[in-house]
Here is the input.
Amino acid sequence: MKIAVIGGNGQLGMDVVSAFSARGESVTSLTHAEIELSSMESVKACLDGRELDLVVNTAALHHVENCERQPELAFAVNAVGARNLAVVTRELGATLIHISTDYVFDGRKREPYIETDTPLPLNVYGNSKLAGEHFVRTINPRHFVLRTSALYGKHPCRAKGGSNFVDLMVRLGRERGRVRVVDCEFVSPTSTFDVARQIVALAGCEAFGLYHATAEGSCSWHEFAREIFAAADVPAQVDVASPSEFPSKVPRPLYSVLDNRRLKTEGINLFPSWQAGLRGYFAPTAVAVAS
Here is the structure.
């Protein structure tokens, strides 16, 4: 199988490239320097002639505050860019795997969201990603749209200055011995290693459509921080912070837990619990090969 991974130098993209490469697939990693998603001309010029079977899009403008400040750019990349990929991959007869987000929901349900729940984003980022989902789902029938949540991985996340919540907590815990984290926001922290493994499994089937793809279970950011210190063997204290201590400039869902209902129905859910995923993060480096 010939595969192109867009955003292949990113936090998730690098794990996806590694996972497919470990299976002996022919994988091309494409960065922003090589493909500009908001330009149809760039997308066509980059993908035409490669005889691709699969394109995995891990690229996005996902800095929430920047999206709010630059809504035109957010929609150009996250919505129009997804449309451009859907059009070109349909013309090529290639499957498109497109990564979306839990931020398409407003968090008011207070129980895990399933794929058939009605999205209602609270911010520009969520709206731009939802628009991208619609383009992909209506243009290329050979698609997988994967909504995931609270990603962390061993490779740098450029939008977050090269760090992630896990590494930040470990660093602060070692430096200060005590941190303050809110306990009113709930997520399913998900390792990019596990997402890559699930993507490889989906690429081997034709059960196209929309999927939730996160670690099993959920926790508050406070609970997550406590588990991080336990897994990393960092003797630090986690206190409960008031939301006013870390005010957000952009509305965000307080509850964005996803249920992998469709993956389970299809019998292809490979995600471990969020606790097991975190322990795997601190284990010796492995390669995400799906069985």
